[in-house]
Every structure is written in C-alpha cells, then in structure tokens.
Amino acid sequence: MNRRSALRNAGIASVLATGLAPAVHAQAAVRWRLASSFPKSLDTIYGGAEVFSKAVNALSAGRFEVVVHAAGALVPAFDVLDAVQSGTVEMAHTAPYYFYGRNQAFALGSAIPFGFNARQMNAWMLHGNGRRLMDDFYAGYNLLSFAGGNTGTQMGGWYLKEIRGVSDFKGMRMRLGGGLVGDVMTRMGAVALDMPGGEIYQALHQRSIDAAEWVGPYDDQKLGFNKVAPYYYYPGWWEGGLELDFFINRKAFAALPADLKAIVNAAASLAHADMLAKYDALNPNALKQLVMARTKVLPFPLPVLDAAFRAAMEVFAQNDTRSPEWKRIYADMRNFQRDQIFWFRFAEARFDSFMSAQRI
Amino acid sequence: MNRRSALRNAGIASVLATGLAPAVHAQAAVRWRLASSFPKSLDTIYGGAEVFSKAVNALSAGRFEVVVHAAGALVPAFDVLDAVQSGTVEMAHTAPYYFYGRNQAFALGSAIPFGFNARQMNAWMLHGNGRRLMDDFYAGYNLLSFAGGNTGTQMGGWYLKEIRGVSDFKGMRMRLGGGLVGDVMTRMGAVALDMPGGEIYQALHQRSIDAAEWVGPYDDQKLGFNKVAPYYYYPGWWEGGLELDFFINRKAFAALPADLKAIVNAAASLAHADMLAKYDALNPNALKQLVMARTKVLPFPLPVLDAAFRAAMEVFAQNDTRSPEWKRIYADMRNFQRDQIFWFRFAEARFDSFMSAQRI
User: Fold this and answer.
1) What ipTM did this prediction achieve?
2) Which of A346, A350, A353 should be substituted to probe chain B, the one whose Cβ sees the most B Cβ atoms within 10 Å?
3) Distance between CA atoms of residues A49 and A264, nearest Å
4) What are the annotated GO cellular component locations (chains A, B) (predicted)?
5) Quick one: A3-150+240-280 is in which CATH superfamily?
6) Residues of A in contact with B128 (CB under 8 A)
7) Measured between alpha carbons, how far is A18 from A13 in angstroms, rounded to an integer?
C-alpha cells in the first residue's frame, strides 16, 4: 500500500462527505498482523507487543491497526522470522537470539554472555553503530528492527543442587533459552536443552532436568519453579540485559507514509521503555516472596563466573570464524562495550554501590 | 483550540479541495511555543527539546509544530514555570528541582540526593506512583509533566584542592545546581552558590569559588573546567539520575485531540530515551581525554559520602515539616526506592560489578 492510498483510506472519504474530522474508530486504513514469539501468560514480554499496538492506534487516530497474535496462533514461536521475511505477516515481536542457529550474529541484537546491561545496549543501539549494523545484517532477511523491550539482568536460574564450583556443571542437564548460552554451557560440560517455559516445571519435578533458567523473579514465580527447585542463582551472566525486538518486513515498512513510519518508531520506543520499568516495579516483590518461601537465593561462586567468561570468549572467537556478520558486528560491539565499562566504573557504579549498602 | 477546529485546520481544507492527502509541510494546525531552561550550547540537555519537536512534527505529519526557544530567548531560564502556569507558553523543558524554592516537592520529580538512579526513576514514574503523584502536585501550577531526558549519575564536580575528609567542605564556596543539594551542602558547612554554567570557568579561574559542579565529562570538558581545577570527584551523590521534564499547560494539553495528546507522550518518550543514550555514548571519550590531560579523577572518600547521606536525611526530615506535598510524595518514593535497592543488589549489581572487573 502506498502513501496516497493509505491516507485516502484513512477516513478521508468520511471527511469529504461530512466536513468533520475522521472518527478515531474509523476502519483502519492500514492493518498489520504481528506474530509474537511469546505466550499471553508471559504478560511482561508478550505485553510489549500490546503496548506497541495500542500506541500505534492512539498515535494514528485509528488509521493504523496492528493485531497481535500470540505464539502459535498464526505462526509457531520460532517461525516468526520466516513469516516476516516472506511477508506472511508484516511484523513480529521476538528475541533475536532465538535465530542464533541461522546465523550467530542474531544474538548480538539481543543478548550475548557478558555483554551489555540494558542501558549500555540502548547507548549502542541509539548513539553507537548498533542499530545500523544489525539492520544491515537483517536486510538479508528482508527485515528491519526496532527495540521492543528489555528484561534487565536476568537471574541465573533454578537448580536442584547447590553449585559449589565449575565441576558441578559437568553433565548437568539444563534448560537454557538461546543457542549461544548453550554453546558456552556445553563448553563448561553441561547438557544444554531447550523446552517451552510451560514444560519446565514438570521437567524439574520429574528430575528429567537438573536446572533451568527462565527470566527473573516475577516471571519465574508465576511458573512456581521454587516449589520444585530449592536453589535460585544470580546473575544470569548470559543475559545482562535481554533486548526484545520488533522485526518488520522491509517492503511493508517502505509502503507506509512517513508519519506512520515515525509512529512505528515511537510506539516501539514506548513499548521498549515500558517493559524494563514494569520488570523493575514487579521483580522486587516477587523476589521477597520467593525469599519468604525459603528459596535459597545465592550468587554464582566467582570461579564459576570466571570459567563461564573464559568459555564465552572461546565461543566468540569460534563465531568469528563461523560468521563474517558476527565478526563485523561483534568487533564494533566490543569496542563500544569497552568504553561503557570504563565509564560506568566511575559515577554510576560508585553511586549504586554506595546506595546498595544504605538502610533507607 | 478544540479537537474539531484543530483537525479542521490540519490541512483538511486542502483535502476537500484536491482529494489528496495533506502535504507534510502544510501550515501546522497547532503551533506551540516551548521555553527551554537551557542554552543551545548545552547540546545534550537542550537537544532533548529539539528531539521532542522533530518527533512531534514527524508523528503528526506536520499538523503540530512545537517551536523551541532557548533560555532567555522568550523567557529567562528560571521563569519557565511561571510562563507555563500562566499560559504565556504552552510548554517548557526544564529541571523540576530548579523550583525547589517554591515548594520542596519539585525536587522529587527531578533528583534528590541519594535518590534513584535513572532506571529506578523510570520504574517509579511509569509503573509506580511517581508520575501520578507529581502531576497531582503540578496541577496546582496548571501543568502536567512528561519525562524529557535523564543525565544518568552525574560527576561530583571540580575542586581546586584535594578532598581528604568532611572538614574540607567547611567554608568551601561551591557552585551547585538546585536548592536541595544547597541545603545539604550548607549543613555540611559549605557556602552554596548558584551561577549559570557559562560563568563557572571564570569564577574558578579567579578563585572566587573553590569548587563547582556542572554535569559530567562531556558537558564539563566543553566548558574547560579541567584547565582551572585539577580535581574531579565522583559520584554526584545529589544526582544519581537527573530527570529533565517537559512541563505542559493543562489547558493547552486538554485542547489537543486525542491523537496529538498521544503524540506529545510518545515524542517525550523518544526524547527521554535519546538523552541518556547520548550521554552514555559521549561521556567515555570525554572522560578519557580528561584523564589524558592529567585531571585527577577521584572518588569522594567514604566518610564524605556518609556525612552527606546523614545531612541529606536531616534535610529531608525538615522538608517533611515544610511541605505537605514533599511529605506525601517522598514517603511513596522512599518505599519504592527501598524495593529497588533490594532488587538491584542481586542480578543487576552482581553482573555490573563482575563486568567492571573484566578486561575485554
């Protein structure tokens, strides 16, 4: 649909007929389908697409409608990339690292072990080369991307047994999201498994897995993992800040008039900011309840983090040889991250660490 | 201007005449004036209003224009509150804590010593009671607010002499932004002074002040403070995350049609996110250059932070007796902050502190 026909359909006929402004609830001139990789039960992440859809509607006075379909309703969770690429749907809401198996570079738009925290990711995406580099890469899949939420640093998952050292990961059957952390955990000796969130509880209960990571206190508590696994470790070093993205078919986007393009960008920005704020508002109470229910909330021992860091660096070096796109984007990301780590050591870290020691 | 007339003027006449969509550069139906409290030279913070204005224009296809006026062009920097309240201008871009002298509660919408970091402030504003409580208070000034940027944790300023302990603040003449940190510094024995950013260099050079705080590496380096003061301390414990706001006259906002109201909200959100990302992208290199130019970048000694924390708590208790609005909003803010500090101690702090120790 080109700009002229989009606007002509946007209730202009009724303006011509009545001389009045188009009604907000007029038939939308542009209707898109959004395929989410997430179930409705994951209200935090799935909800990002709903925030987006509502914002698009409000900003366009109803001229532009985006109908959100939960995972599996139109398209299976992990088929949304193909669906956007082929134009079956105009857009998706997903975690880019789900497509690590297609090309390692997808993970860089989402989260890599020992990568950015949420705020640093925003800096790279908005004022570094991040978004441009990712969209250059995504162009090979006929899509462009907008940030659509961040979880913040996730927790490190639920374990049947206490983690005393690196050797505890040897042979551990662990449910993990995303192929990159799977590569790193495999290098540490674990058996990386994937399964939908809804199957984790039963698998832990039946001891068919030894450990599982999902998201953080709010999402994890809803699935009741504390009832079947006593140990809850932090941090999720593979997700210092998981960015969710809106993937949009380039042809569909190009067909939008300029104002609706701007509306897509702004609505995504609203959804992006909303998700992290929602997580930060909801996680503290959930974590308190988990602690009160006698969950053992423990930091990974430092030797575990050190071993994971070394394993991650080995996987990254291997990825440099596997994917030229990974190599190019990763080099830029690392340079930017080096500066972020330098800068955050000063005012930000000192302020946060002082505050974390206060009783207020 | 009501919704109908706003839209009727929005190029609808040309639609009726030609049957074509309104041109993007048609005469704007709604024109607002924005008075900034900041000079153009402060491109980071002043730039937030420009990001907002461009977004409003793009999102509305030119139907809504917001003309940005730098501090002093229409209205002096600190008169923007009166100007919005009276309707002289429809909106302003400012730091709410500039109006602490009117009512202590203004500071809570901006930054208080040992308050939120940028991310926690977003959580309180978007998913806590923050925005609602502030807007209830701002209603007494005929205005409502939208977040319009955050600087992140600022640096603690430039000093002629090394800070060895709390006693070094006794009699220190220090340029400070905002009345609340002035109250706290006064309690620590300092002489709190205010002056525009453009006068700080000369005052330090002439030794008419002993210290001055401004923002952080990028903004501070541009003003050349390192050439006249050797010591640069961190963190700026009075600004763990300074939120800038858009103040909007309630009557002007109420007169907007629903889509333009949504556009104001979305454009503010874009400006808000952009500023922090811009600071994080620009500050590292500026700090590196300052270090290379032999600036002594040092953390405040812990006893100084402890004394400042105690002094701040005393001022806050006094504010409870001075302003019922402060008392009500502060109580809510503190409860929310207590939970944030609890939550951030786990995944987020552990991840960031591990990363800050890595060589990547």
Assistant:
1) 0.92
2) A346
3) 12
4) tripartite ATP-independent periplasmic transporter complex
5) Bacterial extracellular solute-binding protein, family 7 (3.40.190.170)
6) 281
7) 9
